[in-house]
Amino acid sequence: AFSTVPAAVEEGRRIIRNTHRVAKLFVAKSVYAALLLATFGLAPIAYPFLPRHLTVTSSLTIGIPAFFLALASSSGPVRREGFMRSLAAFVVPAGAVAALAIGAAYLLARGPGDLPLEECRSAAVVTATLVGLGIVVQVERGVERRPVRPWVWGMVAAFLVGITVGLQIPWLREFFAIPMPGPTGWAIIAGCSAAGILLLLAVRRVPWLNRMEEPPAVEPAPAT
Prior knowledge:
The chain has 224 residues and is mainly α. It is 72% helix and 0% strand. The chain has eight helices and no strands. The chain has helices at residues 5-39, 51-71, 83-110, 117-141, 150-166, 170-176, 183-203, 207-213. Helix 4 (117-141) packs parallel to helix 7 (183-203). It starts with a helix and ends in an 11-residue tail after the last helix.
C-alpha cells in the first residue's frame, strides 16, 4: 500500500501546479474585463462587446485551454505560499495589456478607421482572441520560461484556424454578430494584436515582476 504514496503525492502536486496555471487564465480575463468596464462602460460610447462575443473569446482563450491545461501533466516545484502575490504579478500586467490592445483596436476602428460599429466590434473580438491566446502561451511558459509543449502550439494553431474559418461562414457570422472585417479592419487587428503580444512579452521580462511571481517553492523531502 505504501508503494502508492509517491504517485499520490505527485498527483497532488500536479493538481496544485495546474490549478495555479488555470487561475491565471481566468483572473487575467477578469482584469481586462474590469478595465474595459471602468473605461468604456462609463464613457458615452458603445461598448466593444456584445454578450455573444464573450462566448467566442472566452471559449477560445479561457474555457477550452483551461480544460486541457487542468488535465495535462506538469513538472516543476510546487509553490504553496505567496499564491495571491504570484497571481497578481501575472494577471494585472497581462490583463492591462489585453485591455489596452482591445481598446486601441476598437477606438482606431471607430475613429481613424471610420468603420461601422459592427466592424469595430469585430476588430475588438478578434484582437481579444489573439492577445488572449498569447496569454495562454505565457501561462504555459511560466516564469521559468519553459518550452511550450507541441500540443499547446497545436491547440493555439487550431483556434486561429477555427476563428479564421468561422469568419468565412455566413450563418456563424450572423449568429455571433461578428461581420468579416475589411482591409482596414484587418490592418488594425494585426497592428494592435502584434503590439499587444510584444508588450506582453516585454512585461514578462520585468525583473521585479518575475521576483513577485516566483515565491519560495516547496520541494519534496529527500528520500531516507
